[in-house]
Amino acid sequence: MWYKIKNVLKEILLKINPIYRTVQSNKNQLDCLFEIENKNKLMLENIIQSNKNQLDCLLEIENKNKLMLENIIQKNNYNNYQENAPSIQNVINIFDGQWASKLPLEGVTSGGIGLFSDNRIKSWNNLCPVKNKRILELGPLECAHTYMLEKLGAASVTSIESSSQHFLKCLIVKELFDLKVELLHGDFREYLKNCEREYDIVLASGVLYHMVDPIQLIHDIAKAANNVFVWTHYYSEERTDINTQFDLEPIYLTEKYRGYKQYYGDTSNCAKFYGGTHPYSVWLKKEDIFSVFREAGFENIALIEDSLSHPYGNCVTFFANKNIKIKKA
Ligand SMILES: C[S@@+](CC[C@H](N)C(=O)[O-])C[C@H]1O[C@@H](n2cnc3c(N)ncnc32)[C@H](O)[C@@H]1O
Questions:
Q1: Residue 238 Cα, ligand 1 centroid: separation in angstroms?
Q2: 214 CB under 6 A from ligand 1?
Q3: pLDDT band at residue 4, thresholds of 50, 70 and 90?
Q4: Cross-strand pairs, 301
Q5: Residues with Cβ < 8 Å from 149, sequence gap 6 or more?
Q6: Which residue's CA lies nearest to atom 15 of ligand 1?
Q7: CA of 107 to the centre of ligand 1 (A)
Q8: Ligand 1 mutation target, pool 210, 220, 221, 312, most atoms within 8 A of CB
Q9: N or C: fewer beta carbons within 10 Å in the chain?
Q10: Angle at Cα 299 formed by Cα 234 and Cα 216, nearest 5°?
């Protein structure tokens, strides 16, 4: 019996032994492989960690692009058929949720801002009546001021709007109120650069602080007219509460003037964006705005209002005109 067991054990040992030897001889190689695997794991972790920021950035860009695309699709959704009976509300609803102004139409729902009865237009008109004047309006948005200028008897109004969305809303307002305005779709900076037409008044309301080069705009306005109506935000160090993202360091626009870069950020993607054509704009300080207007020839500046409590930043309303020198005979 014992002899049998011994033989079996011997047989097992004989079988195990080569396996044991093989394992033993491969152990070093296996240890090596383990070490390599651990090193690779560590390297992979390092690569993932060091690329995490880039990945996060890419993810953020992708999200922004998605949002932009959604907005574009929403804004260009013109294939809707209207099945209600024809009405003005149907027309307004083409840009549902995108109107800023409250249209002066009984029973019609549009935006909430009273731009069609704006006190700023009334104040400018008191200082420089628009009746029988040729007016160039920069950035009409929804032609609310245009409507008021025509009601006040302007001889002609030319309005230039660069946003296609706002331009189409302007066309709707022109149609609804039978405005005579010459409505142009394009960039008013390009228009002013080559402008040979003369105007009596330039209306620059809500546009100066949307410019990358506000100084250039002021000089170009000066070439087009002797009178200018201005409403604009201006940079003020005291307004640390406003939600606008400014660069910490000002930039030199000229040797004399500094500008403060502000970025629109995500607001430029929303349906109610009323800003400029670039991802950022440059704000001037109030004294500098007046100084540049004077240098451009607008020697008389009548301040109408200086608001220090506007939620988006301090702003001024003023009228400026040139001292027209009459040539002696
Ligand atoms: C803040 S809104 C002012 C609207 C209106 N003028 C007011 O005072 O209520 C600025 C308008 O100017 C337009 N705009 C901005 N930059 C422009 C440019 N370079 N050329 C034409 N329109 C521009 C915008 O699309 C927008 O309609």
A1: 26
A2: no
A3: confident
A4: 320
A5: 121, 130, 135, 137, 157, 203
A6: 276
A7: 28
A8: 210
A9: C
A10: 50
Please give the number of the atom of ligand 1 that sits closest to the Cα of 118: 9
Tell whether the model's pLDDT for residue 244 goes beyond 70.
Answer: yes
**Among 145, 159, 207, which is best to mutate for testing ligand 1, by the most ligand atoms less than 8 A from CB?**
207
> Interhelix angle for 144-151 vs 119-127, to 10°?
40
CB distance 42 to 50 below 8 Å = no
Q: Collect contacts of 263-271 with beta carbons under 8 A, ≥24 apart.
A: 266/64, 266/67, 269/64, 269/67, 269/68, 269/71, 270/71, 271/71, 271/74, 271/75, 271/97, 271/98, 271/165
Ligand 1 center–CA 20 separation, angstroms: 84
Q: What residue type is assigned to position 145 of the chain? A: H
Q: How far is it, in rounded angstroms, from Cα 107 to Cα 95?
A: 17
User: What does the chain come to in residues?
Assistant: 329
Mean pLDDT value of segment 282-289: 97
Mean pLDDT of 96-123: 97
Cα(252) to ligand 1 centroid in Å equals 25
Whether 228 and 283 have beta carbons less than 8 Å apart is answered as no
The model's pLDDT over 175-232, given as tens digits with 9 standing for 90+, comes to 999 999 999 999 999 999 999 999 999 999 999 999 999 999 999 999 999 999 999 9
Ligand 1 atom nearest to 141, measured from its CA: 27
Is pTM beyond 0.85? Reply is no
Please provide residue 235's backbone torsions phi and psi, each rounded to the nearest 5 degrees. -80, 135
Kindly list the distances between the CA atom of residue 51 and the CA atoms of 40, 45, 59, 62, in Å, as whole numbers in the listed order.
16, 10, 12, 16
